[in-house]
Design brief:
The chain is mainly α. It has a single domain, classed as Amino acid/polyamine transporter I, CATH 1.20.1740. 63% of the residues lie in helices and 2% in strands. The strands form two sheets. Strands 1-4 form a two-stranded antiparallel ribbon. Strands 2-3 form a two-stranded antiparallel ribbon. α2 packs across α9 and α8 packs antiparallel against α19.
Length: 531
């Protein structure tokens, strides 16, 4: 057996991971130095309840209030866990850095692979940008707590965003074993950080809300009438859960850097979701029990942080020192999250380019002397910065309205990419050849549930955030913060990819392109259990 350049690949000296990768068509180019814990850790870091849980708390508060948090998080989280387990089964069968688009290509063909890849790549570009910009926003608030001269203008926040993004680019210059330390440390921060925040919110405030308030109180700051409350307003609040618990595909994208990847990457996917689902729920309940100043939370009494903001909870219920402590924990967590998100995005860019699906693919598919896809990381970061440029402009309330769509665009793009291979696996039924981690017969009901959940929430997250975002409404304006620009952002990347497919790519893109010759026959894996 030899690689695409004629170099010998001796099966006798290849370990099981390298052999399986060769069977899937690729030679080992990335540094395989991660264990199962680190693979799990990167998904915990990208999910980051210290990022999404803090930054989109207001989405749930304003669209449903405490009930959207107390009941929405466990409900939607359980459905997301099902999605993750369906993905884990496919990841076990195909442990490659290409992840989702590779799965879709193998199970459905080149067309499915093309669009899955572009949705996945788009979601990770948007996700990296949204996390780093949110980190800059929280950092700006933190700086203001220490310096009264800091004004935190949109331009200053954008400057912080670029600085954070630059640091994350530098971080991704290092080889995988260095990134392993980063992600392991991040995992510990995402364990003890939320625990510390929970403790602060239990013992720091002078009073707490009742159980009745947390589990039954409703808030509707959306502008939509109460007649739409349960069927439209409350589902808009589910963005808190759906956006926060994203990015767990990172475990799949880092499979070529993980030992025993067919098992460990699958476990990394679903176990990271389960961990963040449980710990995140306790943390968000702590937020809500501490939200005793309801009028302030709803944007009154001089609240400068915005209606429903998690920062408003801390500012109104904690002393200045404890407020600072919570903000530091969150900012550091978001910083970890952004770095790991860029790592995951760079692996998708690298793998998708390796199969010639991205313009300039030769550049993005290169690795440096440390076996790191540096060019791919730079491409993802620059693309994210470009899509965040509208955040330089705001309305009279200084809200970067175009940026607000990044979280919705991230969620929409990633979940489309998640459920396409889940659907294709369900369609294959007993023809699917499972890896060592499998759902067994449970795929029959779990896969349809996963697809249905993503389709329903996807429809909601493409709609306006309030009546003022509907063209023709008396309060409609392009910069009023009510318009959902997520479909526009997705159209630029995925729509462009669709046009490219119609005009050209359908004639030459064939899916994954092997870079090894005479790969060994695939092992006799057990078929998925049948009837």
């Amino acid at each position: 057996m030899s690689d695409a350049h004629g170099a010998a690949l001796d099966p006798a000296v290849m370990n099981e991971d390298e052999r399986r990768l060769a069977e899937l068509g690729y030679k080992q180019e990335l540094e395989r130095s991660w264990g199962g814990f680190t693979n799990w850790a990167i998904s915990v870091s990208v999910i980051s309840i210290l990022a999404g849980g803090f930054t989109t708390y207001g989405q749930a508060w304003n669209n449903g209030g405490p009930i959207s948090i107390a009941w929405g998080w466990p409900l939607i989280g359980a459905l997301i866990l099902i999605i993750s387990m369906c993905m884990a089964e496919v990841a076990s069968a195909y442990p490659t850095a290409g992840g989702l688009y590779y799965w879709a290509s193998k199970m459905g063909g080149a067309t499915w692979g093309w669009f899955t890849g572009w949705f996945n790549l788009s979601g990770l570009i948007f996700g990296t940008a949204s996390v780093d910009y949110a980190c800059a926003t929280f950092l700006s608030v933190l700086i203001s707590l220490y310096s009264s001269s800091w004004t935190g203008t949109l331009h200053e926040v954008f400057g912080l965003f670029l600085l954070i993004l630059l640091i994350h680019i530098i971080l991704n210059l290092f080889p995988a074993h260095i990134l392993a330390w980063w992600n392991n440390l991040s995992a510990y921060w995402h364990l003890f950080g939320p625990a510390a925040v929970i403790g602060i919110l239990i013992f720091g405030p002078s009073s707490h809300q009742s159980f009745s308030f947390v589990f039954t109180h409703t808030v509707n700051n959306s502008g939509f009438g109460h007649g739409l409350f349960w069927i439209f307003v409350v589902p808009l609040g589910f963005l808190l859960t759906q956006y926060t618990i994203t990015g767990y595909d990172a475990s799949a994208h880092l499979s070529e850097e993980t030992h025993a990847a067919a098992e460990k990457s699958a476990q990394g996917i679903w176990k990271s979701v389960a961990f963040c689902w449980v710990l995140g729920y306790v943390m968000l309940l702590a937020f809500t029990f501490a939200a005793t100043h309801v009028e302030y939370m709803n944007g009154g009494q001089g609240n400068p942080y915005g209606a429903g903001s998690s920062i408003a909870v801390f500012a109104s219920s904690l002393s200045v020192s404890l407020f600072k402590a919570v903000m530091i924990i969150s900012v550091v967590g978001q910083f970890f999250c952004g770095g790991s998100a860029l790592t995951a995005g760079s692996r998708v860019m690298y793998a998708f380019s390796r199969d010639r699906a991205v313009p300039g693919h030769r550049m993005w598919s290169k690795v440096n002397a440390s076996h790191a896809p540096v060019n791919a990381a730079l491409a993802v970061a620059v693309a994210g910065a470009i899509f965040t440029l509208p955040a330089l402009y705001g309305n009279a309330a200084h809200i970067p309205v175009a940026f607000l769509a990044l979280s919705a665009a991230t969620t929409l793009s990633l979940y489309v990419a998640y459920v396409i291979p889940v659907y294709l696996r369900w369609r294959q039924r007993d023809e699917f050849v499972a890896g060592p981690w499998t759902l067994g017969r449970h795929y029959r009901w779990m896969c349809p549930v996963a697809v249905l959940e993503a389709v329903i929430v996807g429809i909601y997250f493409m709609l306006p955030f309030s009546p003022a975002g509907i063209p023709g409404h008396a309060d409609f304006a392009w910069n009023n913060g009510a318009i959902n620009y997520a479909p526009v952002m997705m159209l630029i990347l995925v729509g462009g990819a669709a046009l490219w497919w119609v005009l050209s790519a359908h004639r030459w893109f064939v899916g994954p392109v092997p870079n090894v010759e005479d790969a060994p026959a695939a092992p006799a894996l057990e078929p998925a259990p049948g009837d």
